[in-house]
Design goal:
binds zinc ion, alpha/beta, Quinone Oxidoreductase, Chain A, domain 1, 2 domains, six-stranded parallel β-sheet, about 375 residues, seven-stranded mixed β-sheet, binds nicotinamide-adenine-dinucleotide, Rossmann fold, 17 strands
Length: about 375
């Protein structure tokens, strides 16, 4: 089958790989109909996530048709068109039982922090992902959900990550009616977080990024105020000024460990790799939230240490909430929001690209060319 193949930092290509097989009675094999590229994939692409092995296939945002099921699979049947949450979760461990599906204790033998994630390095279990024609889905009774009748598959694929992650970012912010919420990052996740902040009763939503077309998009889509951090001087001072010098009630980090805005951190973390990436967005979030406020982090930080102004967290009495999104927990209500038109996730999809051109797709999404917000890869059979 055709599959994306990681060859090293900033080098991916399309290759032939064997079609995956059932390895465990609870596995399913899914023929991919859509698979997105995510900001999280860019951390892998840039070589920022430890133990990202050459030969791995990325891709954790997948829809597809069930081709084969293992003998213990009960909830899925061949022919079902499913959306597959990015978390791989056993459904039975102490964490899954608390609906912490992103922190499953069984699906990732390599670590005790994050659970398994499709195509996300051996620190997240070493599973091959779905930027391919087929993908193996472990614990097939737990994650996948049959795409509801009438739902556009473009909406369905956004429910595997972007929608739940944006929603959970807002949820973890503990937004109270009337709160001012600042979202750092106007990528798909930040855009969705800004949109969802209103659902929790925000009174004002401000988004910070540096890419004009994304700022324009989020202004219309969320809708909200949006500013280029290069044109507002010190973003912390700017945000203090616009919030009566108190700071925002809630700050959301939807950027992660490869943030721009600090040449010193760029050199230290991205150039010399002495710490894990660059964290100016998180600095700004901590420094511009009000005392006693909440910082919600969904931006990805690797397992190695990063620079964080922890003294300010302590002295301001900030609550930090963070996690990988627990997709399966949120799906019932988010499917309803999409069906009722409260959320329109497919509007974020700007590019539909044949899987064969995966290398161009990565280059475009990484360099934010052609006004790209969210690219979806389509395998040949899905285009027929
Ligand atoms: N926790 C989860 O479950 C989860 C799920 C999906 C994605 N993520 C993470 O969320 C983050 C965003 O993902 P995405 O798909 O939207 O990525 P993306 O790369 O499309 O967007 C990131 C945006 O951040 C902007 N940015 C860079 N530095 C900034 C700064 N200092 N301040 C404000 N904005 C800045 C970029 O210009 C870009 O528009 C990534 O770190 C990704 O790994 C987490
Ligand atoms: Zn993702
Ligand atoms: Zn589990």
């Amino acid at each position: 089958m055709l599959a994306m193949n990681f060859r090293g930092p900033q080098r991916v290509r399309i290759d032939e790989k064997p079609v995956p097989e059932i390895l465990h009675p609870q596995d399913a094999i899914v023929r991919v109909t859509r698979s997105c590229i995510c900001g999280s994939d860019l951390h892998l692409y840039n070589g920022s996530v430890p133990d990202t092995r050459v030969g791995m296939t990325f891709g954790h945002e997948v829809t597809g048709v069930v081709e084969q099921v293992g003998p213990e699979v009960e909830n899925l049947k061949v022919g079902d068109h499913v959306l597959v949450p990015f978390n791989i979760a056993c459904g039975k461990c102490v964490f899954c039982r608390q609906e912490l599906y992103g922190n499953c204790h069984e699906s990732n033998p390599e670590a005790t922090a994050v659970g398994g994630i499709y195509g996300y390095s051996h620190t997240a279990g070493g599973y091959d992902g779905g930027q391919a024609e087929y993908v193996r889905v472990p614990y097939a009774d737990v994650g996948p959900v049959v795409i509801p009748e009438g739902m556009d598959p473009d909406d369905a694929v956004m429910l595997t990550d972007v929608v739940p992650t944006g929603y959970q970012a807002a949820e973890m912010g503990g937004i109270q009616p009337g709160d001012t919420v600042v979202v750092f990052g106007a990528g798909p996740v930040g855009i969705m977080a800004a949109r969802c902040a209103w659902l929790f009763g925000a009174g004002r939503v401000i988004v910070i990024d540096q890419i004009d077309y994304r700022l324009d998009f989020v202004r219309r889509y969320a809708p909200c105020e949006a500013y280029d951090f290069r044109s507002i001087g010190d973003p912390v001072l700017f945000l203090k000024k616009t919030t009566d010098w108190l700071g925002a009630d809630v700050c959301i980090d939807a950027v992660g460990a490869e943030a721009n805005g600090s040449p010193a951190q760029n050199l230290l973390g991205r150039g010399m790799k002495l710490v894990a990436g660059a964290t100016p967005a998180l600095h700004w979030a901590i420094n511009s939230v009000k005392k006693g406020g909440i910082v919600s982090i969904v931006g990805v930080y690797g397992p190695t240490q990063s620079l964080v102004p922890i003294g300010n967290v302590v002295n301001k009495g900030i609550t930090i909430r963070a996690n990988q999104a627990s997709v399966k927990r949120l799906l019932p209500r988010l499917i309803e929001h999409v069906q009722n038109g409260i959320l329109d996730p497919k509007a974020l999809i700007t590019h539909r690209i044949p899987l064969e051109y995966v290398s161009d797709a990565y280059r475009m999404f990484s360099a934010k060319l052609d006004d790209c917000i969210k690219p979806v890869l389509l395998p040949p059979a899905a285009r027929a």
